[in-house]
Amino acid sequence: MxxxxxxxxxxxxxxxxxxxxxLTVAPEAVADAPCPxxxxxxxxxxxxxxxxxxxxVSYDPPGVVxxxxxxxxxxxxxxxxxxxxxxxxxxxxxDLSDGRCxxxxxxxxxxxxxxxx
Length: 117
Fold this sequence. Notes:
single chain
C-alpha cells in the first residue's frame, strides 16, 4: 500500500490544510521559556518538550509529537505518520517559520520526524 501525504503550509495569513483528524496550525507564542533562535520546540505526548537544533530527529512511540514550534529565524519541517482505519499509512506534514506552531494528532501516531533548516 502506498502512503498519502497531507501538507500544511503556514505563511503570512494564508493557511492551507488537508488533514487527517484535527490538525491545527496557528500563530502562537513559542512557549513560556523560549528556545534559542534557529531552533524548534518539540512537544511530546508525555507532556515534555525539548529545543531541537539544526538537523533531523526522529521521534518514535512512546515519544510521539503533539506540537512543534519554530523560532523566528528557523524554518522547520515536521512529518507524522499514522495508520488509518483501513490499515493505510497516512503522512501529515507541517512547514513552519516565523515563530509559528502546528499540532499533530496523538492517537494512532506511529512516529514523527522534525527537521530544522
